[in-house]
Design a protein that fits this description.
3-stranded antiparallel beta sheet, 7-stranded mixed beta sheet, alpha/beta, 384 residues, Rossmann fold, 14 helices, 2 domains, elongated, formyl-coa transferase, domain 3
Length: 384
């Protein structure tokens, strides 16, 4: 592996959502990420090599409910720099793989815990999903049109407020461990991260600059110069001309006379301004408007689908998307001048695909006995 994290050993205890995403980011940046899966774990519903959250990783299958399987996982933790787990509070401890168990064997270990609600509090032991945590964090309420909140996929909670927060916490703890020789436990929770992402909005609300009504604020579609409009072909155009200079470029591109439209920040004139912009955009197709505004500072962009985005000239020039193992996918980010990441070079593994080789490489004793007793399982490599 190459990249700024080359040489970092990460043990990921199998889970879904934020933990695999955090492991993927670390693997993208060069870490050696070894995932512990359950024997017979349910396969990804699509093509097994398309589970992109596991790209760049290897997988061992261990039955953690068997003492021998748990001991093997503990032996892996003893050799890791980082451990990631996403169990409900108390589960890792019951398996003998809690922070105390692992850090007794490996005091420098950074133990990253990812939950929805955190390790304590009245809801800590209950289930939830991305939408649940966004709802309670005060984030979901402001997302969507006036008619009601809209689920923003699982991007804000699982991946933004969850996985990325876990990565940041782990890297911060690694920096401390490097200086002090002592690791620590990172308690990352989706509800914490979701609230953190909304920090600016909480400040604006305190000053009366953000209102509870959806679609009434500067950045939620309330402002006609920061909104999405349908074009003549039924596709959409995103307008984000916040500053007066950019607003001027917007009006010029639309062919609107500044003297004949309401002032940009005259809220009373916003309905008429929205109508004028909307009527003009509806006269041409999305791609025609993209051509009109190409190279300008109007902050106008075509709303592209996931299929179209890789072909956009800017994204193509930066190689934001790459083709690896037959799948077009986002490239690792960010970029580094001295130690660029080359990944993802390894396709997502099948559960247990690397059991024998990885256990041996990580120095676990009695690998063949583990395999013979079913505490560890070696899977067939399966389809390529």
């Amino acid at each position: 592996m190459s990249g700024p994290l080359a040489g970092l050993a990460v043990l990921e205890l199998g889970g879904i959502g934020p933990v695999p995403f955090a492991g993927m980011v670390l693997a993208d940046l060069g870490a050696d990420v070894l995932r512990v899966d359950r024997p017979g774990a349910a396969a990804y519903p699509g093509h097994p090599r398309h589970d992109l959250l596991h790209r760049g990783k290897r997988s061992v299958a261990l039955d953690l409910k068997l003492p021998a399987g748990a001991r093997a996982a503990l032996a892996l933790a003893a050799r890791a720099d980082v451990l990631l787990e996403g169990f409900r509070p108390g589960v890792a401890e019951r398996l003998g793989l809690g922070p105390g168990d692992c850090r007794t064997r490996n005091p420098k270990l950074v133990y990253g815990r990812m939950t929805g609600w955190g390790q304590q509090g009245p809801l800590a032991g209950t289930a939830g999903h991305d939408l649940t945590y966004l709802a309670v964090a005060g984030v979901l309420h402001g997302i969507g049109p006036a008619g009601g909140p809209t689920p923003p996929a699982n991007l804000l909670g699982d991946f933004g407020g969850g996985g990325m927060l876990l990565v940041a916490g782990v890297l911060a703890a690694l920096w401390r461990a490097q200086r002090t020789g002592s690791g620590e436990v990172v308690d990352a929770a989706v509800v914490d991260g979701a609230a953190l992402l909304a920090t600016q909005l909480y400040g604006l609300r305190q000053d009366g600059m953000w209102h509870e009504g959806r679609g009434t604020n500067l950045l939620d579609g309330g402002a006609p110069f920061y909104a999405v409009y349908p074009a003549a072909d039924g596709e959409y155009v995103a307008v984000a001309a916040l500053e007066p200079e950019f607003f001027g470029h917007l009006l010029a591109g639309l062919g609107l006379d500044p003297a004949e439209v309401p002032a940009q920040y005259d809220v009373a004139g916003w309905p008429r301004l929205r109508a004028l912009i909307g009527e003009r955009i509806a006269e041409r197709t999305r791609d025609e408007w993209a051509e009109v505004f190409a190279g300008t500072d109007a902050c106008v962009a075509p709303v592209l689908s996931a299929v179209e985005a890789p072909g956009h000239p800017q994204l193509a020039a930066r190689e934001v998307f790459v083709d690896r193992f037959g799948v077009r996918q986002p490239a690792p980010a960010p970029r580094f001048s001295a130690a660029p990441a080359a990944g993802p070079l390894r396709p997502p593994p099948l559960p247990g695909e690397h059991t024998r080789a990885a256990l041996t490489e990580w120095g676990v004793d009695g690998v063949e006995e583990l395999l013979a007793t079913g505490a560890a399982v070696q899977a067939d490599a399966g389809p390529g």
